[in-house]
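Hi support team,

I'm opening this ticket because the web form for multi-chain structure prediction keeps timing out on my end. I have pasted the exact lines I submitted so you can reproduce it. The total is 306 residues across two entries, so I didn't expect it to be a heavy job. Is there a limit I'm missing, or should I split the entries? Thanks in advance, R.K.
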Amino acid sequence: MERLFLKESKSTPFVDFDADKNILLIKGQSYPEDAFLFFKPLLEWLKEYLAGKVGQNVWLEVTLTYTNTSSSKCIMMILDLLEEAADQGVIVELKWICNEHNEYEQECAEEFKEDYTFPFEIVLV
Amino acid sequence: MIHLQQLKKSLEEYKVLICFSGQFSQGIVEQLCEFIKEQMTESEAAKYNPMKVISIFVEQAQNIINYNLQNINHRYYDQLLESSIVTIGKTLDGFFVTSGNILDKQDYEPLVGKIEFLNSLEPNELKKHYKEVMRRDDIGVNGRGAGLGLIQMARTAKSPLEYMNYSINDQLTYFQINVNC
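Hello R.K., no limit was hit. The queue was backed up. Here is the completed structure from your submission:
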């Protein structure tokens, strides 16, 4: 599958979904005017990618300093896809990186973590 | 000529740090976010995490942008567009974010109903409600936000959401919402 690579903008994160290495990165902040428009290609890419990864490892690394509510909803949709994939036998591991001084970021990560059963590690840096 | 000292005095009286009046756009929201971050890390507020202020500001501003987008065929569309204002200022122990814009009167009661409902919830109920709404509303249909902004504001606020309105004419009212954080 083709690598999905998006540069960071003021209101959208850096994205690097590398299908060869099975490493998916999202890094930055997310508060675009229309979050679904931004996340739709990511969701479509993931759906197709995860379908072919049963029995294989997939690593997702997320750093999000700020997300507006509609972006949070899209992040939830991404995590839902991972949960589904994990149920179907994809070996999913998520690392969510937070600034150790930023409680806001940590709370956001903790709150997502509550809803999922796949390995979800919050790393403070 | 504009009496700037008077304007300045009013801003100082209300302890306003940042004020933007006029038509919001995503570009303006982005610039103001950068500005808030700068202001809040270079000032006495440095210790304070600017994320709460930014979060409330972005939800308020994007709510206004979305409201106007839904009213593109409104008779008073131009007035709606120009009516927005946001102020960010100091309170005794934190910050306030207050924004205002013109609403069609038919939208006022439902909005106030939502705010009152959110104000009646305890923090754990708010969290539960937030997660429910996040799961329930289909973003594909309503791509421009899932009605989560107000809930997020209520969750971030350290006191109940405050609001006021001033009637303009039979159809329009000026609405303002204040969030302390």
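A quick check on our side: The beta strands of chain A are 4-6, 14-18, 23-30, 57-67, 91-98, 120-124. Let us know if the file doesn't open in your viewer.
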